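Possible race condition, two jobs.
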Amino acid sequence: MSSPFVIKPCDKRYEQAIKSLETSSCKNSSNAKNLATDDALLSGLGLAVKDLFHVKGLPTAAGNPDWEATHLVPETTNCCVANMLSAGATFKGKTITDELAYSLHGQNKHYASLVNPTAPAHIPGGSSSGSAVAVSAHLADIGLGTDTGGSIRVPSSYQGLWGLRTTHGLIPCDNMVALAPSFDTIGWMTRDLDTLQKVAEVCIAGASAVGISPNNEEQTATGDAPCFGVATHLFENAAHGALCKTWLHKLAENNKHMALSADQLDLQFLQTAATFRTLQGAEIWQQHGEWIETTQPDIADDIMLRLNWCKTITTHDVQQAKAQQEVVINQLNMLFEQIDVLVIPTTPGVAPRCDADEMTLANDRNALLALTAVAGLAGLPQLHLPLFTLHNAPCGLSLVGKKGNDLALLALAKKLTTG
């Protein structure tokens, strides 16, 4: 199996970088140390870091050798990485990402093809592909990644991992390569929920520094008697819908719930995929357009095709998409006046096969975006639960919460899966 790492301990730069990490500091690290180091919450846990995060002394390639060649080696470590290391995690290396993180499939032509350890005939999912594979293959315990359009949720679903996409803005996206800042979030993947929760305790500890603090009172209330809004029609259209049905029936028997009608969450009518695609694309070109035109980097054809489309997005297109985004947000706000947690499929089914043609993969991406854009457009936290297997490949469902209720989602998942 090919390695998910681009930089690992055998790299000659590794030892020097580790020494630098010991003396690196960031604005939130002291807060994290006060909350986490005493108990060494992450002691003994291996950390795989997506190659978008800056680590002092190590290059950041963002999945593309031309990016690495045209950017200086970082002199500062990302705060989230620093906080996790301060809490006792062991740095295992930087991991492969899809180019510029602009893909959901986990394929990068500049590296040997990654194998999905849990379903080798299926793609691993991206763009946090290397971090996911490192965890699935037991090469690390924590896979740190980013999630803009699904890059934590999709590989988690495809590889049978627990995965948390955090509330937008909850954890600072400092010292890293951006994709679309209005939607970029930090997240992580683990093989078990306990580890996922430990990471959350460390990484969300400094959330108040960016103005969004977890609301303990609200989380307690949500955990006591939550009302689940189940998007039944979305599960009916999912390939693993029959598997979900049994679990959802048990959920309904033991909890307050509301079966949402298609009209209450009509993703086609709300244009979630198209709206997200336009807003994300405009920001991607704003972030990287000048570099792309100046450098003319070697980028995979499918990603380059999307980047070229990003260039064509007009101000009018963005204005229309922002107006539609407000429609989506308002609809979700109305739902969350009646429910505490939204339950949806994470992905339409299991991962596409490795031998899938380009049309199949393109259709899969569109179907994925319709689902992942729900939390993406509204900046909501989403937790993937790896509950099922279909045709020997993993799949599951998601809990979507209100802004800032990340910790409550984790506590609720613990109750649902162990109670």
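Job #2 (started ~2 s after job #1):
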Amino acid sequence: MAGRFEGLTDLEWRLFEDIFPKEPEKRDRGMPHAPFRHVLNTLLYVLITGCRWCDVPKGEISYLFIA
């Protein structure tokens, strides 16, 4: 059954923060770096709500990879 996901709270993010590198590597070409918190929020949104990747709503939670 599909759920509802509002995004990670600051307390929840602190639990995951240590998993990701502190500073992303600088890239000369390609897409700019997306903040890891937004990447994790979008992945959790898809997993929790059960929506398809192409149906992720445009907005704060999904501004990264959606074309």
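Confidence is low (pLDDT under 50) at residues 62-67.
Logs attached separately.
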